[in-house]
């Protein structure tokens, strides 16, 4: 089904508002443009789809089915009606047609871009202009003019593999030659799936941390964190100076590395010696190196690549707490960072230990407890369970509290 442009824009707006937390009553600033957000993750985006291009991709798939199922009744009917000699003329192209054929015409450009010739007898292939090599049309990778004799070489007959079989078309951007939605979407966006390259931002989504912290690091890598300096550049009337140390503009670099609070955190965490040089690198490179290292944190043998993301996240939380709530510097950033790191590491410790040559021993236990009441007040009870550092059940318990309120039952489940 072909979506109207207005419908596509409305859907995109809903997605953007959800991503950045905007509602009708309270608008929020969109920190990154939609074009960047909808890039593949390997290219620095979030991998979201632009509705218009996604719609073109699905319509290109319709064209693929039309070509691959050409013996089916519906395909023969469309081909006979809309690919007749009369329809292929300039005047015939503007004749009224069904919604299905209109949809095929919209998806056609992306479909055609993704086709590649499979050489058999070579008689159907233009040697220079057709897409029959893995790297694309041969003429597109040759600079300058061709000699007259070379330009007259039009067919790929010298490279024929099977003289008795006709050349055939396949999808160029998949291993099995079948249609691929991912590559078709890139073609609809105007990108070349063969020349994407690999962005250094692909490490973000492989980092051993919570998804929300991965998103936070993605924002940092794009220099789009809502700090005072960046918000000032977006047109807000704000003092760009850091309100904590009053020494420099509050940029991403200053917040995470140069501010007195940040320097104090990294000093207390004792950054591994082999990573000290990274603190002079660009922010994106600094984040990547510290999230990809195999170095071990001194405390309990936890990996530094687990501790580091927690550290920058706690700096951001402490900054927001200072700005919007207390105006007092949090003195427990170091403690909170280690606590969160130990808990996160313990959740995945079993899997990580199986992959590591050296087994890391993290000996601690965690208690989860809860309580509830039938009424307020009424009969109440509580219970809990104890798990070890690998998440294995150790012991559980439950008991009655008599008649009490729900709040008391929550407070004393043990």
TrEMBL record:
Domain called Reverse transcriptase zinc-binding: residue spans: 179-266
Top-rank taxon: Eukaryota
Name listed for the protein in its UniProt record: Reverse transcriptase zinc-binding domain-containing protein
Organism expressing this protein natively: Quercus rubra
């Amino acid at each position: 089904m072909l979506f109207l442009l207005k419908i596509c824009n409305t859907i995109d707006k809903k997605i953007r508002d959800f991503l950045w937390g905007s509602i009708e009553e309270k608008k929020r600033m969109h920190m990154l443009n939609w074009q960047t957000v909808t890039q593949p993750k390997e290219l620095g985006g979030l991998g979201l789809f632009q509705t218009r291009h996604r719609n073109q991709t699905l319509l290109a798939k319709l064209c693929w089915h039309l070509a691959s199922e050409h013996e089916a009744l519906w395909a023969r009917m469309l081909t006979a009606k809309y690919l007749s000699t009369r329809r292929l003329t300039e005047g015939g192209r503007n004749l009224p047609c069904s919604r299905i054929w209109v949809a095929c015409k919209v998806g056609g450009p992306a479909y055609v871009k993704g086709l590649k010739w499979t050489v058999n007898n070579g008689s159907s292939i233009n040697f220079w202009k057709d897409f029959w090599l893995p790297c694309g049309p041969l003429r597109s990778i040759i600079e300058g003019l061709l000699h007259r004799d070379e330009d007259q070489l039009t067919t790929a007959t010298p490279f024929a593999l099977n003289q008795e079989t006709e050349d055939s078309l396949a999808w160029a951007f998949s291993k099995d030659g079948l249609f691929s939605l991912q590559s078709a979407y890139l073609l609809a966006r105007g990108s070349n799936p063969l020349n994407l390259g690999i962005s250094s931002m692909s490490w973000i989504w492989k980092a051993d941390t919570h998804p929300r912290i991965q998103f936070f690091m993605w924002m940092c890598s794009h220099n789009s964190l809502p700090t005072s300096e960046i918000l000032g550049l977006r047109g807000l009337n704000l003092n760009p100076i850091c309100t904590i140390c009053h020494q420099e503009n509050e940029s991403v670099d200053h917040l995470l590395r140069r501010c007195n609070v940040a320097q104090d955190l990294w000093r207390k965490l004792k950054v591994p010696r082999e990573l000290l040089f990274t603190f002079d690198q660009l922010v994106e490179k600094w984040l990547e190196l510290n999230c990809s290292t195999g170095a071990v944190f001194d405390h309990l043998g936890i990996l530094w690549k687990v501790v580091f993301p927690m550290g920058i996240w706690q700096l951001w939380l402490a900054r927001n707490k200072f700005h919007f709530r207390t105006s007092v510097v949090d003195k427990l950033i170091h403690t909170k960072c280690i606590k969160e790191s130990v808990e996160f590491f313990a959740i995945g410790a079993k899997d990580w230990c199986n992959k590591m040559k050296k087994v890391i021993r993290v000996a601690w236990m965690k208690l989860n407890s809860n309580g509830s009441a039938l009424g307020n007040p009424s009969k109440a009870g509580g219970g809990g369970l104890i798990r070890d550092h690998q998440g294995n059940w150790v012991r559980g318990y439950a008991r009655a509290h008599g008649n009490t309120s729900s709040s008391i039952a929550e407070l004393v489940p043990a």
